[in-house]
Design a protein that fits this description.
By secondary structure, this protein is an alpha/beta fold. Strands 1-2-3-13-4-14-18-16-17 form a nine-stranded mixed beta sheet, with helices on both faces. It has a six-stranded antiparallel beta sheet with strand order 8-7-10-5-6-9, covered by helices on one side. A hairpin with a 5-residue loop joins strand 7 and strand 8. Helix 1 packs across helix 11 and helix 6 packs across helix 11. The chain starts with 11 loop residues before the first helix and ends with a helix. Bound molecules: manganese (II) ion (2 copies). The site of one manganese (II) ion has 6 residues, from helix 6.
Amino acid sequence: MYRENAWKKYDAEELAKLNAFAEKYKDYISTAKTERECVDESVKLAEAAGFRNLDDCIRSGEALKAGERVYRNWMGKDFMLFIVGEKGLEAGMNILGAHIDSPRIDVKQNPVYEEADMAYLDTHYYGGIKKYQWVSIPLAIHGVVVKKDGTKVQINIGEKDDDPVFYISDLLIHLAQEQMGKTAAKVIEGEELNLLVGSIPLADEEKEPVKANLLKILSEEYGLEEQDFVSAELEIVPAGKARDLGFDRSMIMGYGHDDRVCAYPSMAAVLDYEGTPEYTLCAVLTDKEEIGSVGATGMQSRYFENTVAELMALTGTMTELALRRAMQNSRMLSSDVSAGFDPAFAGVFEKKNAAILGNGVCFNKFTGRGGKSGSNDANAEFVGQVRAIMDEAGVSFQTAELGKVDVGGGGTIAYICANYGMNVIDAGVPVLSMHAPCEVISKADLWEEYKCYCAFLKGAKAL
Ligand code: MN
Ligand code: MN
């Protein structure tokens, strides 16, 4: 099967575009480290590109016509973009989907305690992580605290040069004889992920003086009291910006490539689209993929279908049957990262069907576990159309499975959208060290992915 290293084909002009796009992406993931921050940044970019808030249109009831551009912010954690097409929504949409939540460590609802003259926040990790990777590295706290009166306090500590950072300790090697004999799953256990946040006692305080001092600081600097943690969503993420990787600067090392490396270009492809499309175009950036797409902001909820219904109402085409047809007749690239082939761990891959860094955007006809269990398994007819679009646009692409048969597996949002009967295929970018605090991607794959999305928006059609 023919595939090639995409770097070989670039001239100076395209390299300049590729690098400019990579810089914008690095800024985005360095700023947006939580699903809420991704939505906030995306709203800014959408408004700058002339997209209007769909909720304003719903309130005013104004009719939307072909060529109009709207976005929707759902609960501050999901983000959708639409460009209304010439054909009615019943003809289906060209949809780009990706998720904006990433594996991390969340703060518990009753987290503050003191032990051995140090103050800690207790945590519960989010998504699939190797817990031992999250100790002894600089960490930041991002999130919101909602007070009883509904006011929301934004928290972002650990990113500026003069900010403090936070830390989860590991056991010193000198006393680790027993720990070193444990399996990796047990080296650091969930209840050992305790975030160190202070060590100065409050003078004249007898009982838990270090905790008392921490609470005093939280009260003075953020207006928070201990009870406010009950209604907080605080996410502990690696501190610091995404960086170029390698002498040739060909790769990017950073937190949260899974799945912002698909979310950002999906959004950019819709924002950059010029003119009025034939079919309605859409990007949907969703939350909660890493914990099963559950909850009111996960892809399994009806927020996306409901938003399409609102759009149909404003274009004067809403009936129950028309909505069902709009979903069923759509075509979607469900984009999520692929396991990049890693020579250090070659044994878990089957190289012919593995994603190679720099070989372009990666299509996964199916993901799932042993026996394709739980996978979407896109229709060959749709894969054929997607191939043709990619070749026509000169996009470098490859196909892959998630590792060798029966070695492991994973899921995406593809099967959920496919529940409507629409054609969906998994696409994405090869990543090294997926779900680690720092993941690695190739800038060439990021660029080919963006070109893939632009070509799909233009070229995908009813089958
Ligand atoms: Mn993931
Ligand atoms: Mn993912």
